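Input structure tokens:
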């Protein structure tokens, strides 16, 4: 019975949160790795792109809620998500047309694009803060839990209760669907194959008649969609705060680099690697240890390696280790 209680506590506080968080990081890292693989630069504005798409979704969610439009137990944000994606696509295509395209025509070095993306990042961050404000904005409604602690305890008779939030279930299901659609698109459609060819060898792709402007536009369209979905899922699971999305840039980049920049499979693996590392290192293991250790060895302290305040330090440490010893990442992507 103690082992079952330990397993439930582990699932409640480590496994389920890490899987949901890893799904969110994976979707974010996919956007980063697509930009690096196809457009060949590190987009430091990606976190604030997520924030912008989420902001538009939040505004439409509030509008739907004010009109009494909901979808029962599911969050109203799901109805507003297509509008958030469209808003993000418009912004990101306009940004490419006005800013990035000039440097692409000039064949500027990747470091120039990185510097330009930093400027775009600050502009997007300012726009989001100006429109919706710098504070936490909650927009979750509908049924909060798929399984609540009380119901789980009543059903199983265990001392520990298991809670699975609706947002966690939505995150995992949505991530599986989005990743499946993306991989099908990249591997089984003519446009997807053109994008892969452009990524592998730009000059040869151009000689084959591939339209570079079309490849760039579709890449940004996919990135805007991934960024908005990842941002909305994260905002529903936690809350929406513009600065938080700026902070998310570190674990997202760490996930992309750990998996291998330019490798979509690596981005997914890197997302879960970073998520599980952050959660397990910052979790206080006392509750699990009490169930599994003998009476004399049960701990008095929290058994916590790092405070949750330092969770981003875990991402940074993993990123440094990978850059030092395997800069191409776990799945041998492009070196940084």
């Amino acid at each position: 019975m103690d082992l079952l209680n330990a397993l439930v506590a582990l699932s409640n506080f480590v496994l389920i949160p890490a899987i949901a968080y890893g799904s969110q990081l994976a979707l974010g890292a996919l956007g980063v790795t697509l930009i690096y693989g196809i457009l060949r630069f590190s987009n430091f504005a990606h976190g604030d792109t997520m924030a912008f798409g989420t902001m538009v979704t939040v505004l439409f969610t509030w509008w739907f809620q004010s009109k009494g439009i909901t979808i029962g137990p599911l969050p109203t944000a799901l109805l507003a998500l297509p509008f958030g994606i469209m808003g993000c696509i418009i912004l990101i295509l306009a940004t490419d047309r006005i800013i990035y395209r000039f440097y692409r025509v000039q064949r500027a070095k990747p470091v120039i694009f990185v510097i330009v993306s930093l400027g775009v990042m600050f502009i997007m961050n300012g726009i989001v803060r100006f429109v919706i404000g710098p504070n936490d904005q909650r927009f979750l409604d509908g049924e909060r839990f798929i399984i609540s602690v009380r119901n789980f305890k009543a059903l199983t008779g265990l001392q520990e209760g298991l809670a699975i939030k609706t947002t966690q279930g939505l995150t995992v299901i949505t991530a599986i669907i989005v990743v499946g659609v993306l991989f099908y698109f990249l591997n089984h459609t003519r446009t997807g194959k053109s994008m892969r060819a452009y990524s592998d060898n730009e000059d040869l792709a151009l000689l084959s008649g591939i339209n570079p402007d079309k490849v760039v536009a579709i890449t940004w369209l996919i990135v805007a969609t991934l960024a908005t979905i990842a941002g909305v899922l994260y905002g529903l699971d936690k809350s929406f705060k513009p600065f938080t999305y700026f902070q998310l840039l570190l674990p997202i980049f760490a996930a992309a680099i750990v998996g291998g920049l330019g490798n979509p499979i690596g981005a997914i693996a890197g997302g879960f690697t970073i998520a599980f590392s952050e959660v397990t290192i910052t979790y206080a293991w006392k509750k699990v240890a009490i169930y599994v250790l003998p009476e004399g060895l049960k701990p008095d302290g929290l058994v916590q390696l790092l405070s949750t305040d330092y969770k981003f330090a875990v991402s940074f440490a993993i990123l440094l280790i990978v850059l030092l010893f395997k800069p191409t990442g776990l799945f041998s992507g492009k070196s940084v």
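The radius of gyration is 21 Å. The longest strand covers residues 145-147.
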